[in-house]
Automatic annotation (TrEMBL):
GO BP of this protein: pyrimidine nucleobase catabolic process
GO molecular function term, any single one: riboflavin reductase (NADPH) activity
Record keywords: Oxidoreductase, Plasmid
Protein source organism: Gemmobacter fulvus
PANTHER family in the record: FLAVIN REDUCTASE, FMN REDUCTASE (NADH) RUTF
Protein name: Flavin reductase family protein
Ranges where the Flavin reductase like domain occurs: 13-156
Length: 307
């Protein structure tokens, strides 16, 4: 069998992204001890078991193997310094670390993502390390994002994701038409608008259905009429024509679909869109607008070309 380069093997192990933990216990005199480890793994739910491994060269090996138990503290993204403290040789690693005794007795570090306080179930020699299997007696998970480790460097997935540029908010608009009129509602700025809603995780179809329900009217999701961006507001707008049965809306009122009828619409882009719809309805020649809130192009639809 060919010999294995320990450094290369360690680098290969480092390709597996892990969390970062600090494993703690008390020595025979009640002094807190701990070390940084990324060898943490869940083992069993019934009974509740986990494992970590400690190097046989560690000066703390005897305390962990002969002790009553240990705790695994999963570090949060802001605890790189804590990880470094427990990874380096130090006379008292707990001197600058706030901690408390856990329900089972082992030291629990403040501000972690989660902790598990365990009784020692078994210590298994395994090469140059010893595997510590703990029976979980108490645990707690917090909303704090966990600190990661990959190829010899710390990673902070949640913090990194929060700094990435986000895409625009998607806003759905329902143009509810019936008998030459269109529904307008109060836009909250002293003017009028068509019913609008931001699209969430549920998607466009669900958002549109919910928006129509709020009007109290019977309407169908019709064809897309305009798709445009508003770079200033960071929004992407999708407007759909929704054929509607006559009725009394729960909010707003139907107005004549004409340049005069939509004159009180506050948003210039929306007002121009409705004015275009009024003209196209009169001519029976429809199109779909693509662009921004300021400029774009109208693509004629088959419906519009048929006439």
């Amino acid at each position: 069998m060919a010999s294995i380069d320990p450094r290369a093997l360690r680098d290969a192990f480092g390709c597996f992204m892990t969390g970062v933990t600090v494993v703690t216990t008390l020595d025979a005199d009640g002094k807190p001890l701990g070390f940084t480890a990324n060898s943490f793994s869940s083992v069993s739910l019934d009974p509740p078991l986990l494992l970590v491994s400690i190097a046989n060269s560690s000066g703390n090996l005897g305390a962990f193997v002969s002790g009553k138990g240990f705790a695994v503290n999963i570090l949060g993204e802001g605890q790189k310094e804590v990880s470094g403290t427990f990874a380096r040789p130090s006379a008292d690693r707990f001197a600058q670390t706030y901690w408390r005794h856990g329900p089972i007795g082992s030291p629990l570090i403040a501000g972690v993502s989660a902790w598990f306080d365990c009784d020692l179930a078994q210590a298994i020699p395994a090469g140059d390390h010893t595997i510590l299997i703990g029976r979980i007696g108490a645990f707690e998970a917090t909303p704090t994002a966990g600190l990661g480790y990959y190829r010899g460097a710390y990673v902070t997935p949640a913090a990194t994701a929060a700094q990435l540029p986000a895409g625009p908010d998607v806003v759905i608009s329902a143009i509810l038409e019936t008998e030459g009129t269109v529904l307008l509602v109060d836009d909250g700025r002293g003017g009028l608008s068509v019913p609008m809603a931001r699209v969430g995780r549920e998607g466009v179809q669900s958002a549109l259905a919910g928006l129509i329900r709020t009007t109290g009217l019977q309407a169908e999701a019709g064809s897309i009429y305009a798709v445009y961006e508003d770079p200033v507001q960071g929004t992407q707008h999708i407007a759909l024509r929704c054929p509607t049965k006559p009725g009394q809306p729960a909010k707003g009122a139907f107005v004549e679909l004409s340049a005069q009828g939509v004159a009180d619409v506050t948003d210039p882009a929306l007002r121009q869109m409705l004015q275009r719809l009024a003209e196209e309805s009169r001519m029976g020649n429809y199109g779909i607008y693509f662009g921004t809130h300021e400029q774009g192009r109208v693509q004629r639809t088959l419906e519009g070309q048929a006439g």
